[in-house]
């Protein structure tokens, strides 16, 4: 059995076939994650508190507590805390199997 706390990310590659990592992230008001993409990962964000603006590709939407956001492999994405309190969310990064890729 492995029990760990999420501190600066938890690498799961040695424990799970498809799960790469899990992160507990907090963005201060006015801060954000720069535009980026993942060539071999898809991600899920689960918002614990606060709110912000999520951009995936050309789509932009406000997100808030209890929202779950799916980010496909290769999708350029960014997140900006547009609120006045910290935006806290869990990120689950999952490896995409080669036979599941759409290209």
UniProtKB/TrEMBL annotation:
<keyword id="KW-0479">Metal-binding</keyword>
<protein>
    <submittedName>
        <fullName>Cupin domain protein</fullName>
    </submittedName>
</protein>
<dbReference type="InterPro" id="IPR013096">
    <property type="entry name" value="Cupin_2"/>
</dbReference>
<dbReference type="InterPro" id="IPR051610">
    <property type="entry name" value="GPI/OXD"/>
</dbReference>
<dbReference type="InterPro" id="IPR011051">
    <property type="entry name" value="RmlC_Cupin_sf"/>
</dbReference>
<dbReference type="Pfam" id="PF07883">
    <property type="entry name" value="Cupin_2"/>
</dbReference>
<feature type="domain" description="Cupin type-2">
    <location>
        <begin position="26"/>
        <end position="91"/>
    </location>
</feature>
<dbReference type="GO" id="GO:0046872">
    <property type="term" value="F:metal ion binding"/>
</dbReference>
<dbReference type="InterPro" id="IPR014710">
    <property type="entry name" value="RmlC-like_jellyroll"/>
</dbReference>
């Amino acid at each position: 059995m492995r029990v760990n706390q999420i501190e600066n990310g938890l690498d799961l590659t040695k424990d799970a076939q498809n799960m790469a990592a899990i992160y507990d992230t907090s963005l201060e008001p006015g801060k954000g994650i720069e535009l980026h993409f993942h060539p071999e990962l898809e991600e899920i964000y689960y918002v614990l508190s606060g709110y912000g603006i999520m951009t995936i590709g050309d789509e932009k939407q406000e997100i808030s507590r209890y929202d779950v956001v799916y980010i496909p492999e290769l999708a350029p994405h960014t997140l900006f805390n547009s609120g006045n309190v910290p935006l806290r969310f869990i990120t689950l990064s999952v490896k995409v199997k080669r036979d599941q890729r759409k290209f």
